[in-house]
Amino acid sequence: MNRILAVALPILILVFLGIGGYLTLDALAPEPEKADEAPPGLSVFAEAVTQRDLKLRVEAQGEVRPKREIVLAPQIAGRISYVSPDFIAGGFIRSGQVLVRLEAADYELGVVRARSGVASAEQRLARERAEADIARQDLEELGITDASPLAMRAPQLAEAQAALDSARAQLADAELALSRTAIVAPFSGRVRERSADLGQYVPPGQMLGTIFDTDVVEVALPMDDAEMGRLGLPFAFAATAEQPGPSVLFSANVGGERRQWIGEVKRTAASVNAQTRLINVIAELDDPFGEGADNGVPMAPGLFVDAEVEGSLIEDVFVAPRAALRGVDTIYIGDPEAGTLAIRNVDVVFTDQEGAYIASGVAEGELAVVSPIQAAFEGMSIKVIERRPNGELITHEPIRDGGNAESESNLADASSSEDEGVIQ
Q: pTM here?
């Protein structure tokens, strides 16, 4: 027994001293300081939501084509004896200008023969009239009042009159054929191509070339139903003086420079394209080679142009940066004072490169977050860095226990901040 106590007693004393020392150190240790500030939130860029009227527009593309273009062809046969120096590919022509002339000798002889026939018919008619007058006098002298038409030479007189009318018609036909040896331009314009030349024999209807009118050019712009709605155009639209069409800004690269022309929507196509389910909106530009040109550069046929068509006006819409739109209808709003993130569902009316136009869901002056955020959630802790329109950056410090709401600093120019995303 004494031996057991001799072994256990030192062990108990050591355990007691260890426990007592631990309790003493724990009682004398200072209490840890508690942090008064919450951990910093994610720094994000944001831009203010503005409010203004929105003029909707629709962008489309199309090929320029002349409103009037014809194939030049003769109505009679003959050998080409003259070709106008302006009747070349790219040449400018005037209304009424002789472009091609055929050899006229044969047709001039035809006119001479027809005139001879007219003279003979006139002589015959005059003779028949004289004989009819003699026959009438003879019958009156004989006292015959019921003579037959044949005795009065009425049929012979009618035949002579018909022969004269036929001869005159043949003369008109010969003169018409002679006039058709000169092929003239029906309108002022330009020559697209020429396919006949001096000395060539051409039958009626053979293609001599293609010309088009330069007074008006048009562009067919394919659009869907939603785009037609933004323009406020019905399917059966035709511009009038009381209801003009929307204005159209055409643009294309010509000669290494961006050129622009201003036209107008004149009508819509008669039907919907069965393959694409789109309808063509026809826009026109007046005098593309004159007053309608851009510093002398015309909107020539065959040119492929971009078109921006002005649509209807929507008043008092909210405008947020395009980068602030998440998906189809979601925007993140930063609360600079609370330092939290709000997720909003908005009614988006229209979007373009300048911004997202919203009918409801946000308010003017709210800060729309443009920085990418992964796994965002409602109430997420953030620090808002506002980017002003002049490029100035304003860092908003969240209000903590009555602290300052905002700290201003010109962190960087707008150009340098564009490359930054999220500041950790």
A: 0.64
